[in-house]
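[09:14] KT: can someone run the structure on this one? pasting the chain below
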Amino acid sequence: MLRQTFLTLSNSRELQDVALHNAAARKFALRFVAGETLEQAVQAISALNAKGITATFDHLGENITTPREAKAAANSYLGVLDAIEARRLNSNVSLKLTQMGLDVDEQLCYDNVLRICRRAQEMDNFVRLDMESSAYTDRTLDMFRRLWQEGLHNVGVVLQAYLYRTEADVQEMNRLGARVRLCKGAYNEPPEVAFPKKADVDANYAKLVRLLLTKGAYPGIATHDERLIEYTKRFARKKGIPTSRFEFQMLYGVRRTEQEKLVQEGYNMRVYVPYGKEWYPYFMRRLAERPANVMFIMGNLFKG
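[09:31] RB: done, structure tokens below
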């Protein structure tokens, strides 16, 4: 119930306006967000790289409403790729299609993403299409297919274990040889499209891990769940799958000690590093995942 409440609040423009001007909310959000500027994110990723951890940049923003905003967002990602190249960072990029203009004009969105993927290809880098709510699943995968058919095989997708359809999507991506980031899912979905019980989501996640490790192309196992991390390790050892064939992924600011431990154990570890001024929706989804943080932030949200 609490999770659903915070997922609903993540779409509230009124609360977003309050939070963006609240010092306590901003300070707490910076636990999960690397900063509001590209330079702050660069510094965060440099620190991760020094620990043997790779990264993916995410310039926060979604559901833009004008072509001008979409083009500006795409240009920001070209700047991110230039920064990766100039600073020799071990990082790729992740982006949301609604930030690239998907709800404004599909061709505009495609053109924006195409520019980013081509620039990344020139730099031998990689672009991940983030997955949003189930309303965008087909549209996101259709966009991915267009890019893939264009010969841009430096692009991958995110698939969400809580959706019933995801096993079929994983099998398609495996056949193509496309890279998948597997996560549980962080949106408020109806029971008609998603498993409502956590135990069922976890069981499906484990099943999809098996498919990706045995038949996938360098999958990203994106979870903070210790049981699923240990399950992945055991399954890989049992099947003789080397650690070079996959990576674990976690969010910036979450389970930092575990991130470093996995690197020390010889696993590849990538951290999703968001930055930017549009941090509110992302932050609220993180609160939904971590109820223990809720009382602190709500107690301070309307102070100072």
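[09:33] KT: thanks! Strands lie at 54-59, 91-95, 127-129, 155-160, 180-183, 220-222, 247-251, 269-275.
[09:34] RB: yep, looked fine to me
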